[in-house]
Recover the amino acids of this structure.
């Protein structure tokens, strides 16, 4: 995520989308040349139908941006739940288990920290076994490397340990049920994140939006030149560029787990969980994640 240190500018926006800006300037310039210097005034278009097309384009573009932001915000809410449930899970293990089972409780907390870092890596398309946070504490066996869903395997190991404590009479059934509900919450959070990651907005919708903006950029100047003259050139670029930027904002927000600067700061969130849990266990804390030289926190 960006912090307050990052400042945008119109120049950066133009560098980002310079091809589209040139296209919008080019279509308006062509319309002005055709109608005024060349005198093909019969090609002028009425304003009213073009305005209706513009309204339709705005609806399509806004819908895509809203849906993308909903996905981004849902991802943030899921990781907010992960933080709270992780804190609760640590407290449960500390309070529900007997003193002689403190090593087992610590082992399960360490495994959960590995689980959180693993989920972060998988959502970002990274290999957990190459991640320094995972390598610092995560299990690395052939079973883990061959697993088709490492996060699910780690949760299964947690459940196995809890059942063993219960079978040994060291954890009563009511506390086991409470811990089971917490593990289920982790699984639901993981499933929600995987659903967002694995289900992008249909490409056909994005294609329609892009085509509508391009068609609108071609038609709009033919309805403006007879009233604005050459001023229709920058005006066309401004209007169509606005639509394009809203559409691009939707595109970059569609995947909240990307490494692009608009992505959720998963490394910061997973490290926050580790710091919180290690503090409760009385252990040394890893350093907090800080923003880079651009002011971006990932």
């Amino acid at each position: 995520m960006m912090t307050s240190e990052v400042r945008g500018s119109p120049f950066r926006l133009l560098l980002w989308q310079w091809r589209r800006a040139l296209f919008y300037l080019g279509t308006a310039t062509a319309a002005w040349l055709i109608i005024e210097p060349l005198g093909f005034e019969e090609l002028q278009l009425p304003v009213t139908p073009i305005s209706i097309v513009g309204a339709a384009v705005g609806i399509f573009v806004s819908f895509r941006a809203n849906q993308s932001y909903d996905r981004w915000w849902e991802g943030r809410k899921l990781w907010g739940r992960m933080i709270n449930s992780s804190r609760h899970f640590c407290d449960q293990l500390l309070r529900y288990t007997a003193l002689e089972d403190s090593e087992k409780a610590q082992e399960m907390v360490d495994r959960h920290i590995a689980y959180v870092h693993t989920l972060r890596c998988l959502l970002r398309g990274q290999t957990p076994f190459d991640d320094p946070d995972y390598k610092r504490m995560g299990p690395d066996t052939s079973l883990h490397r061959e697993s088709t869903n490492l996060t699910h395997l780690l949760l299964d190991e947690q459940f196995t340990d809890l059942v063993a404590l219960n079978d040994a009479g060291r954890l009563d059934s009511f506390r086991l049920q409470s811990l089971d509900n917490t593990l289920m919450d982790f699984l639901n959070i993981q499933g929600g994140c995987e659903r967002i990651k694995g289900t992008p907005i249909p490409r056909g919708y994005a294609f329609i939006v892009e085509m509508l903006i391009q068609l609108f950029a071609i038609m709009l100047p033919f309805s403006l030149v007879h009233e604005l003259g050459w001023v229709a050139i920058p005006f066309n670029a401004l209007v169509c560029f606005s639509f394009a930027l809203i559409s691009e904002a939707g595109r970059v927000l569609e995947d909240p787990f990307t490494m692009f600067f608009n992505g959720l700061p998963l490394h910061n969130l997973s490290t926050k969980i580790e710091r919180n849990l290690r503090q409760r266990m009385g252990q040394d804390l890893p350093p907090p994640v800080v923003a880079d030289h651009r002011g971006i926190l990932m």
Remarks:
- The chain has a mean pLDDT of 89.
- The longest helix spans residues 47-96.
